[in-house]
Backbone:
């Protein structure tokens, strides 16, 4: 997947609603358990660095997307169960400071620009996606729980030479850390992990599509810039909500 136009990405990144130095911001940030200040102080500078590196051709879209998805978050639900106090706190924070809502709109634009979409794939990448989707019908036949799915998923990893480094199970989520043997293939001309994360992950995207239809949330492998390892997780799918992904307007109008 080629990724967004570098200039357009930099323009969106630059539109981040910088928090004002004011008592209103302090009150809103306190209601959000410091999430807004954490975004501004540490997460956003790293986003700027990665976006600039992407524009220079030094990192892949995947590296920027990974960081975008690791944004500090303020939980509004526990799985599918709403957290009323947190939702009320977000509504109060948005009423206190306009930029709380603006951050949600900005984050949605940023994520949409970077996220995987089938329309954004090349013909070859679409073939890989569709192959993964078709293979998933066989690979996950009869698997209806995260535990069953992850066992077969790890078998598939090993079948293509991936080394499983560590496994963990916590709060209904099955996590797998592993090393991709193809991480440096074509690194000189295409960038590190190009084969793993810009090509082979399209097969995993097919798995994601299939499993989502069965109520399973498969967070496919993500690169770890400071490590040779990658990781993935499998859990029950559910309407988890958190700010900034979930806007205050959604909370105010929802149950």
Residues:
């Amino acid at each position: 997947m080629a990724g967004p136009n570098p200039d357009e990405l930099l323009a969106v990144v630059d539109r981040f609603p910088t928090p004002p130095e004011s008592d209103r911001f302090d009150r809103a940030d306190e209601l959000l358990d410091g999430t807004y200040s954490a975004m501004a102080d540490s997460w956003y500078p790293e986003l700027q660095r990665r976006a600039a590196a992407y524009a220079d051709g030094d990192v892949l879209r995947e590296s920027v997307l990974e960081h975008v998805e690791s944004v500090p978050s303020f939980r509004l639900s526990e799985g599918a169960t709403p957290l009323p106090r947190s939702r009320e706190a977000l509504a109060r924070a948005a009423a206190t400071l306009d930029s709380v809502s603006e951050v949600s709109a900005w984050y949605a634009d940023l994520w949409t620009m970077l996220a995987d979409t089938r329309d954004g794939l090349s013909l070859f990448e679409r073939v890989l996606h569709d192959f993964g989707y078709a293979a998933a019908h066989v690979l996950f036949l009869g698997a209806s729980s995260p535990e069953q799915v992850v066992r077969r998923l790890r078998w598939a990893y090993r079948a293509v030479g991936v080394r499983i480094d560590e496994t963990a199970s916590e709060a209904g989520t099955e996590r797998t850390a592993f090393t991709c043997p193809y991480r440096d293939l074509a690194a000189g001309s295409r960038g590190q992990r190009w084969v793993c994360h810009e090509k082979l992950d399209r097969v995993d995207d097919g798995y994601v599509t299939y499993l989502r239809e069965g109520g399973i949330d498969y967070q496919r492998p993500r690169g770890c810039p400071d490590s040779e390892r990658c990781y993935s997780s499998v859990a029950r799918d559910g309407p988890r909500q958190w700010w900034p992904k979930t806007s205050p307007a959604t909370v105010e109008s929802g149950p």
